[in-house]
Every structure is written in structure tokens, then in C-alpha cells.
Amino acid sequence: MSNETDWDELSDEYTEHTPAIIGETIRPQRAITMDDIDDIFAGRPLADQPRRKADVLYKAYLTPDMDARVRAQAEREHIGKSALIRKALAAYLTANQAQPAMA
Length: 103
Known about the structure:
46% helix, CopG, Ribbon-helix-helix protein CopG domain-containing protein
């Protein structure tokens, strides 16, 4: 029995039976930054614009039901729980902006 690997044969076999690529190919319209690479390796999707870093920490307690819903939604959207909470807060604040007073 031989432990020799026939790399040419292996390469030919792979070429004939190349697995299909799952998901879409992303072709960014801007230069990729190191922060983008960090995001990609963290499993975050590449944004159209570089995402702003979150530097301010707020602490909030959730009910067990809210926690389960956050986890499920974050998993569905393939984003982290913190990113989902930031997204929800941004949507809430945008929808509930105070209207400027009439002069």
C-alpha cells in the first residue's frame, strides 16, 4: 500500500467535479479597507459604505422572550445581536424623530 498522492489525478478529479459556489459573489464598488476585512472575517456582510464604529456602550436588560426573538432574528439576518439591536434602535429613532417646532 502506498501513501503517495497523485496530485495531477486529484487536480483533474477536482476540475471535473468542482462544487458549486453557494451564495452570491460580491463585487465591491469601493476600495476594501482593513475594517471591511475584519467585518468579513467576523461574518458580517460588506456594506456599501464603511460602517461606523460603535464606541459608546449602553447596557439594557431583556426579557427571556425578547432575548429569544433577538437571537432568532439575528440568526435569520446573519448578523450579530448587537448589530440587530443597533439596527432596530436606528429604525425606531428615525421613525420617531421630533418634528421641528413651527416658528
